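Hi again,

Forgot to attach this to my earlier email, sorry! This is the prediction with NAP bound. I've pasted everything inline since the attachment limit keeps bouncing my files.
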Amino acid sequence: MTRILLLGGTSEASALARALAERGTPALFSYAGRTESPVPQPLPMRVGGFGGVAGLIETLRAGGFSHVIDATHPFAAQMSRHAIAACAATGVPLCAFERPEWVPGAGDRWSRVTGIAAAAAALPEAPARVFLAIGKQHLAEFAGAPQHHYLLRLVDPPAEALPLPDAEAVIARGPFTVEGDTALLRDHAITHVVAKNAGGSGAAAKLAAARALGLPVVMIDRPALPPRLLRGSVEAVLDWLDHGASGAKRGV
Ligand code: NAP
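Structure tokens for the complex follow:
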């Protein structure tokens, strides 16, 4: 019997949830629980970690899951690695949805770095005004560059003091517009943008805004993952479900 475990956290995961619900396919939607009020889904939902690979294996077995769809954020690499390992151990077919990366275009001033620490190191020595568009989990890695003013954009108001001496947060949930992000960068006199290469349209506005204002962008490359079955659109993931777990793996 078909029963899907859908690992969510992206707008495409929500689109997959809608499609599965419309088709009446039994499925459970899983959130990491990174935001206080996650977007409601038209599927049964669970929130929070599984307890590592062992916990995910137990969940797959106890829940009678026939397929796993990994539609997590491209930087949620630990979850994706755990899904690869647990599906290999249980023989449950896995398909990952992956958005195309953003690529620089004419007028973009990007420097590409690997990892958060490298992004902090790529900022100038002199005090700058930095739009730090990386969520809340890794802000402390910028504490070694306290001379900068940091503008953060967070989904929820911070529950504790920010780990940066000179920082302010705007609270907002995407998708964002180029007009809005251009005004945000201009109003805060931003001189540098730091972003994760998430891809997709919902968070791309800041890049167009940086281009319009001629600002440099420090772009953090995606973490590398082991080979896995990949599809690049919601339709292609549904097609995989309909036509079996075969297809090309990344890197082969
Ligand atoms: P992660 O580092 O890959 O995952 C850490 C742990 O969180 C996993 O090992 C797992 O716990 C749990 N987890 C993650 N996604 C889950 C899901 N969909 N369902 C159940 N448990 C899940 O991912 P992360 O901590 O969420 O985020 C890593 C990076 O991705 C951050 O830089 C963050 O800003 C970015 N990001 C994440 C999301 C999101 O929705 N998760 C959205 C936007 C950006 P167990 O090992 O206990 O199973």
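Residues 246-252 have pLDDT under 50 and may be disordered. The chain has two domains: 4-100+224-244, 110-220.

That should be everything now.

G.
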